Sequence to fold (96 residues):
Amino acid sequence: MPLSRISRLVARVSLVAALGTLAATYERSCMACHGMRSAAPLTGHAESWRPRLAQGMDTLLQHTREGLRGMPAMGLCPDCGEQDFRDLITFMSTPR
Fold:
């Protein structure tokens, strides 16, 4: 197998693993509120995310870390870091 094909295969496996980790974190920490109609913006629902995204990622990260209204501090993910939160916010706010 040519090296470039092996490199692409390794990159694809790494991406799938990363997405699997993100999906597991979402299911464990976010889905209970963001996966159903509630006060939290629904995952993939552009209209409910629009005003939040307009505040900017830094504000969204602050709300995630500190909590806001019904959202608990650290969004029920005490082991998540800033990049985890960025990835989760991006995943949840991407229209489906």
